[in-house]
UniProtKB/TrEMBL annotation, chain A:
Keywords: Kinase, Transferase
A GO molecular-function descriptor: phosphatase activity
Top-level division of the source organism's lineage: Bacteria
The protein, known as: Polynucleotide kinase-phosphatase
NCBIfam families: bacter_Pnkp
Polynucleotide kinase-phosphatase ligase domain ranges (all copies): 491-862
Domain spans labelled Calcineurin-like phosphoesterase: 204-402
One GO cellular component, as annotated: cytoplasm
Organism: Polycladospora coralii
Pfam families tied to this protein: AAA_33 (PF13671), Metallophos (PF00149), PNKP_ligase (PF16542)
Record's keyword annotation contains Kinase: yes
Length: 867, 456
């Protein structure tokens, strides 16, 4: 049978042999046979040609001084050509390509260079030697266009004999030596990348099992796999499952699990990834000196029991099979859909540049994760590996137990610590959802239970280094929101001086934008533009809510003080804070308000009915002067007084005029009109203020129920939220419901406009128009504004000044553009949704806080605050 | 914003010539973006009355400002109250009178006093009525201050925050205007423009012949010039300089605190790496830089403003002799974690803990003693008992203090920490010792115990 050479999916193939040994001819044959492409071959002649326009230079027969020059010139060209060629080979390695290098490679240094390249880029380097009789070499040389000459051929052949002696020891992935005739008959085979797997009918990735066999079976049943007659679990639609490794150790049934997975992998029904425990057991089975600890000793015990039951012979055979299975497990797999990489399955972690490649170093990284914690330059890395993941594939991993599937940067951790009393999780692809089974193992409150340790460390302060130079937050349903270091700094300043404890701030309300400027004359804002915005984005059903004029507040009220510890790390009945995270009330008032609300909710059965330990509410608290007393005194009332008195005084003065040089009527009319503006201005803000010596005078208008201890309500309609507000108002006299109208037709739209006209003429702030649900997307899948505020004509005088409706003023004010504001509103909204989701999942304070901090960071950028 | 002027007496009608404003016309111009109007309301030989008012463009005022950070910008009293802005708007309308340069035939009237009355307002000032009177009365005026009653539908404020001021006296028009142009900015205390050398020159010109003898001269200069460099150039009277120097002669408590801390740091066996946590403007770090053997000083501070000041302070250190470690600013606060602060020789919290809510201390010290684990930790905080000496009644020494502890409370807290973490503690006081109340500041020096680790 002819000799066969198996080519790796990627890497370097070095042809080794003297000139005229047939390297180029061999490659030409492979190209002709369609085995390789012309672009997969690089050669020194080719690069000499590219750089110097000639493939070879002959200096024989020239006088010495001329020959020297030519020789040097040739050397220079060769040096540049080889350098360029190496660059090309390296880049191709990086991109995971296969490259044949057509050069003699007779010098050990020439080969070492490529071995180094292969190592650096985690690709195999293969050597193919061409061993031809010297006579044939010399014969061929005479026939070529630029003969190398007898001496050089002989010299090269001498070198080649040396190569043959040493090359096997040099570290090539494989070495092939072809002699004479074999060069013409050798067959080649190209392997596909063994790490590439097609998703087929769908894949279910399963986290660390650790011998929790019963949970595994339960999970597979839940995923729809059914036991067949051969004792295998088969999915009716042909789905396969993928174990992310660590299938044994620690738990009760390691051998059963190993056997189960092994049978399914062997039958082509499943895959298993290499892992730290798997590798340890493999080496133990191989007879290596390893210390079995961290639950690995339990695997040994199970083998002992097996041996007692089935005898040594069967056990030995069984051990051999398992050893081979574990050793051959891939370090990671790349799942493809339509030939495009989609999901990378790995045990402990991977760098983007390792994906699809194999090497010892990669295998270690995949097994243990980033243990060195230093980067390529030897500097300590600041972030976990998943923070650095930038390429677009989704990475699914296990290894590091997290209490919930942790999603960071298109990486998902699905080890929920089933062996520690957590859960066994499956991630389904392409559905991208989770199925999980609760652990039957006891949850131990001890230091070596990572879930317990994790819970205990949840409230540790956020890492400043991750935040201060700017960062991004992955927001579900929106994408990444980035904040710059310059904006983070003032936000950190606020959180360090003025806010309540940051673990008690799961959310900051987003800013809200007005719609486009009103087309209607005499108006700056009008509901028509808001309705048009939503209709333009395909939203036909909207809600219009009355906008209260008070101060924004977030209320977090706990069932009792004790339960708070589990959610925010300290005991408290609750917190009420402003939109910048400051305490809404002074200490004593807050205590009174919160205990009153808590009592009302408990008596009303709220916590029991909803089976929740807390309620998180987004609300407006009235009156305005409750929070803004100083601002009202120093600004609004003060400016109002200055304006009224200035205009009144002047009017009185000019009315007394005895000497009338000219017609004073226009000036007097104008002043009277402006005095009226000033008086109306005062009446407007007075409407939002009243005395609150009794706490009964305080009104809280909730508009969103943000979260309970197990869930969020972003999917609920606003009508549902309004209904909840109504129920709360029945439970507590401090709470009020909010008037609203639904917009679903032309008629209801014009009713809303009339309603808006009426209440704003009475001096109310205005309305907020929202799509029917909190989170809505446009036709292109982009999130749209969750709300647009439409403020009344009178109200806006406290924002834009008492004379803003004067035609020459309004014309200029109408030039504003809310686009930036809308962009920011959306980002802040997405951050709010994200931070609440993280809070409900009881993620670490650091993860919740990065989203909350980002809201304040965005707010520290100057955009016209009057929008 | 408005100014009314009335002149009574023989030839009062000369005023129109001194002002170079025709009594038959309404004056209506736009100057520096404001509409300025002037009209005579009375014009007889014996009595002339005129009203001058300005109305800035409220939109332009805001839109052409660079700083948009304040929501109440369109709600700005600048468009209504008399201020330096008002003076600049009306200066052109009154320039002839202000400069005393009427047509030659009326020049003899420039220095002629009339029975004058001027009313201006609204005035928004932090000065009380008595101070207002003390500004004008020494110049020979009778002062009437009018403050309107206010009424709101809710308890907003006791009295109006604006006033109208009427001054009357026997005075030439030019001098009256110079008094007004000098003193309106003093009342308002809120300059709209960049204050520089020109302001000194203006003050000298308008104040010629009266300012130097004014009993409130220093107040006028300080409130006009704002900046110490300019104020020094203008020169204050001798007596007020002396009193300032006297104040500086005492050793303030904070300086004493820094000295004690520096002394403590020097006496500790390890002081190579030092963290000044909550470094503020960097005054302590600056002193630490001189300690022999110090190699690294990290000044941790989250306040943007304080950091800038500290940065400048540290820059000035660069070229100085005897500096052993150049302090380095680190963004951070006690509520965040920073691995760079781990394992230092000394960490200092100088007057920091009382600015944190008491319930947050537990977590903060878990991070410091459990994670950062400095060899020594120095904490200073006020001694609440000593407040009796300050007659503070119930309030704290600083409005941002969240608590102040007695010596027993502080000691108790220190011992709680040493029972949780691997530290021992020595507490002392600093400042003048009062037999009953102890010293004004208390200090704890925690040092890490040798031997096995113990977790909190």
């Amino acid at each position: 049978m002819d000799k066969k050479i198996v080519l790796p999916a990627m890497g370097i193939v070095l042809l080794v042999g003297p000139s005229n040994s047939g390297k180029t001819t061999l490659l030409a044959r492979l190209i002709e046979e369609g085995m390789i492409q012309t672009t997969e071959v690089v050669g020194s002649d080719q690069f000499r040609m590219l750089l110097s326009d000639q493939p070879y230079m002959d200096w024989t027969g020239y006088p010495k001084d001329q020959a020297d020059v030519l020789y040097q010139e040739y050397q220079e060209v060769s040096e540049q050509a080889f350098e360029m060629m190496e660059k090309v080979v390296e880049k191709r390695c990086r991109l995971g390509k296969l490259t044949f290098v057509d050069a003699t490679h007779l010098h050990p240094d020439d080969r070492a260079k490529y071995l180094q390249l292969g190592l650096k880029n985690h690709v195999p380097v293969v050597a193919v030697g061409l061993d031809v009789h010297e006579k044939a070499l010399l014969y061929r040389d005479q026939k070529r266009d630029y003969p190398r000459g007898k001496n050089r051929i002989k010299q090269q052949n001498y070198r080649f004999r040396e190569v043959k002696r040493n090359i096997k020891k040099e570290g090539f992935h494989s070495v092939y030596m072809l002699q004479n005739e074999a060069i013409n008959t050798v067959r080649f085979e190209r392997l596909p990348n063994p790490l590439w797997v097609d998703c087929g009918a769908g894949v279910d990735f399963i986290g660390d099992i650790h011998g929790c066999y019963d949970e595994l079976i339960q999970l597979l049943k839940q995923l729809g796999y059914r036991l067949n007659d051969a004792g295998l679990y088969i999915h009716p639609t042909g789905r396969k499952f993928v174990s992310l490794g660590d299938i044994m150790s620690r738990g009760p049934k390691s051998l059963e699990t190993i056997s189960f997975i092994y049978q399914h992998v062997k039958a082509g029904l499943a895959y298993m990834i290499d892992s730290n425990h798997g590798w340890k057991i493999a080496r133990w089975l191989n007879g290596n000196q390893v210390k079995l600890a961290h639950g690995d000793e339990r695997v040994a015990e199970e083998f002992n029991q097996f041996e007692q039951e089935y005898g040594p012979e069967k056990t030995e055979r069984w051990k051999e099979e398992i050893k081979a299975f574990l050793i051959e497990a891939p370090a990671h797999l790349v799942f493809q859909q339509d030939g495009i990489k989609q999901v990378v399955a790995v045990h402990a972690g991977i760098r983007d540049r390792y994906i699809g490649k194999q090497s010892k170093r990669i295998a270690d990284f995949c097994r243990y994760g980033d243990v060195s914690a230093v980067d390529e330059h030897g500097k300590p890395t600041r972030d976990d590996w998943f923070v650095q993941h930038q390429s677009a594939e989704l990475i699914v991993w296990g290894h590091d137990p997290q209490p919930y599937p942790m999603m960071v940067n298109r990486t998902i951790n699905i080890d929920q610590g089933v062996v520690f009393g957590g859960a066994l999780t499956a991630f389904r692809f392409p559905e991208k959802n989770f199925v999980s089974v609760k652990s039957m193992q006891p949850f131990t409150m001890e230091e070596n239970n990572p879930l317990w340790k994790w819970k205990k460390k949840r409230f540790s302060p956020p890492n400043m280094q991750k935040l201060i130079t700017g960062y991004g937050v992955q927001c579900e349903g929106y994408g990444e929101v980035k904040v710059r270091g310059e904006s983070v700094k003032p936000a950190v300043d606020l959180f360090s001086h003025f806010t309540i404890p940051l673990e008690a701030i799961p959310y900051l309300p987003p800013t809200m934008s007005p719609p486009e400027v009103a087309r209607l004359d005499g108006y700056l804002e009008h509901p028509a533009e808001a309705i048009a915005y939503y209709r333009k984005h395909g939203i036909m059903r909207m809600i219009a809510q009355k906008k209260h004029m008070g101060s924004r507040a977030v209320l977090l009220i706990f069932r009792d003080a004790q339960v708070a510890k589990d959610y925010i790390g300290y005991q408290t009945n609750g917190v009420i804070y402003t939109r910048t995270g400051r305490s809404f009330f002074h200490k004593d008032d807050e205590r009174q308000m919160i205990s009153r609300l808590q009592r009302d909710f408990v008596v009303g059965g709220y916590f029991a009915q909803h089976q929740t330990d807390y309620v998180l509410i987004d609300a407006e608290i009235m009156p305005w002067n409750l929070k803004a007393k100083e601002l009202i005194q120093a600004q609004y009332a003060h400016v109002g007084e200055a304006a009224i008195q200035d205009r009144q005084h002047l009017l009185d003065r000019l009315k007394q005029i005895e000497h009338a040089p000219a017609d004073m009527t226009p000036w007097l009319d104008e002043l009277a009109h402006k005095l009226h503006n000033a008086e109306q201005f005062q009446a407007v803000f007075e409407k939002y203020c009243w005395d609150t010596s009794d706490i009964e005078a305080i009104q809280i208008a909730p508009f969103h129920i943000l979260a309970h201890s197990q869930k969020t309500f972003f999917q609920q309609s606003h009508e549902w939220h309004m209904e909840q507000a109504r129920k709360l108002s029945q439970m507590s006299s401090l709470m009020i419901e909010t008037a609203f109208r639904v917009i679903e037709s032309e008629e209801s739209a014009s009713d809303v406009v009339k309603w808006w006209e009426k209440i704003t003429e009475e001096g109310h702030e205005g309305i907020v128009i929202k799509p029917d649900r909190l989170i809505r997307y446009d036709g292109k899948g982009s999130m749209i504004q969750p709300a647009l505020k439409v403020r009344g004509r009178k109200y806006l005088s406290i924002i834009y000044g008492m004379d803003y409706l004067e035609p020459e003023n309004l014309a200029r004010l109408k030039k504003r553009n809310p686009r930036k504001k809308q962009h920011r509103a959306l980002k802040e909204f997405a951050l709010g949704v994200e931070s609440i989701n993280r809070f409900v999942r009881q993620e670490p304070v650091e993860r919740i806080h990065e989203a909350v901090l980002a809201v304040l960071a965005l707010e520290s950028d100057p955009i016209d605050p009057r929008l | 914003m408005q100014l009314s002027i009335t002149a009574r007496g023989k030839n009062a009608n000369v005023l129109s010539h001194l002002l170079a404003k025709n009594p038959q016309n309404k004056y209506d111009r736009t100057h520096k973006g404001a509409r300025v109007r002037l009209v005579y309301t009375t014009f007889t030989e014996e009595e002339v009355s005129l009203c001058l008012f300005a109305e800035p463009d409220s939109i332009d005022m805001v839109q052409n400002q660079k700083n948009l950070s304040d929501i109440t910008q369109y709600m700005n009293d600048r468009q209504f109250v008399v201020s330096s802005l008002f003076c600049s708007y009306i200066r052109s309308a009154l320039s002839t009178a202000l400069n005393g340069k009427p047509k030659p035939e009326w020049a003899s009237y420039v220095a002629q006093p009339f029975q004058m009355e001027a009313t201006f307002g609204p005035v928004a000032t932090d000065l009380p009525d008595t101070a207002l009177k003390q500004l004008f009365e020494p110049l020979g005026y009778q002062v009437i201050i009018q403050r309107e009653a206010v009424s709101y539908t809710f308890t907003a404020k006791q009295k109006s925050s604006v006033r109208f001021v009427t001054i009357s006296g026997q005075v030439p028009l030019q001098l009256l205007l110079r008094h007004i142009f000098t003193l309106i900015p003093v009342l308002d205390h809120n300059k709209h423009y960049f204050i520089d050398q020109k302001e000194i020159e203006k003050l000298r010109r308008y104040g010629e012949g009266w300012l130097d003898d004014h009993p409130l001269r220093d107040l006028i200069i300080k409130r006009t010039l704002h900046f110490s460099k300019l104020i020094r150039e203008m020169g204050l009277t001798k007596s007020s300089k002396e009193s300032e120097e006297k104040e500086e002669g005492q050793v303030p408590l904070n300086q004493l605190r820094y000295e004690t801390i520096v002394h403590t740091v020097k006496s500790l066996p390890f002081h190579r790496t030092i963290v000044d946590y909550g470094a503020g403007e960097g005054k302590l770090s600056e002193r630490l830089a001189y300690i022999e053997g110090a190699k690294e000083i990290l000044a941790v501070e989250p306040s943007v403003h304080a950091q800038t000041l500290a940065q400048n302070r540290f820059e000035r250190l660069r070229d100085r002799k005897n500096i052993h470690a150049q302090p380095e600013m680190v963004w951070g606060s006690l509520f965040y974690y920073d691995e760079r602060l781990k394992g230092k020789d000394i960490m200092i919290l100088c007057e920091v803990i009382e600015h944190l809510d008491e319930m947050r201390l537990e977590r903060v010290f878990a991070t410091i003693m459990g994670e950062y684990q400095p060899q020594a930790l120095i904490v200073t905080t006020p001694n609440a008992e000593y407040n009796a000496r300050y007659q503070l009644f119930d309030s704290y020494r600083h409005p941002d203090h969240r608590f102040e502890w007695t010596r027993a409370e502080f000691l108790n807290w220190c011992h709680q920490l040493t029972s949780c973490y691997h530290y021992e503690v020595v507490t002392t006081g600093m400042g003048e010792n009062d037999e009953k109340y102890g010293e004004p500041t208390q200090m704890a020096v925690f040092t890490r115990r040798k031997g096995g680790e113990k977790h909190g």
